[in-house]
Amino acid sequence: MSFTRAVILETSRLATVVNGVLRKTTQDVELNGFFIPKGWKIYLFTRGINYDSSLYPELSTFNPWRWLDKSLESHKHCFLFGAGGRLYLGKELGIVKVSTFLHYFVTRYRFVALAH
């Protein structure tokens, strides 16, 4: 099942459902030399993180093998299911449901290449 999980994670990386998250600062923050006042709303564009070539080499290539390294799923830049205290509680259940669908889809249907 580890490869099925890797396929699901790579598909989620390439076809991000949630493009970003909106947060509101609870205190004044300085980030990389920029001052962000308390109460400002910040939009984190997570799709941009999923397409960062420094994090995902060959980022346009469908490569589920990259996810077989378990540390990739837990690194601080992986926002496929949220992060930190806001990690999606249904993450594992969602992966199991998609894995079950893929199992039945692959085992119950025949696939034939069509001639051009």
What does this entry show, briefly?
This protein has 116 residues and is α+β, with helices and mostly antiparallel strands. The protein is 35% helix and 12% strand. It is elongated, with a radius of gyration of 18 Å.
Summarize the SSE layout with pairings.
Elements: H1 2-14, E1 21-24, E2 29-31, E3 34-36, E4 41-44, H2 46-50, H3 70-74, H4 91-108
Antiparallel strand pairs: 1-4, 2-3
Structural description of this entry:
With 116 residues, this protein is α+β, with helices and mostly antiparallel strands. The chain contains four helices and four strands; from the N terminus they run H-E-E-E-E-H-H-H. The protein has a two-stranded antiparallel sheet with strand order 1-4. A two-stranded antiparallel sheet has the order 2-3. Strand 2 and strand 3 (34-36) form a beta hairpin. The longest helix has 18 residues, at 91-108. The chain starts with a helix and ends in an 8-residue tail after the last helix.
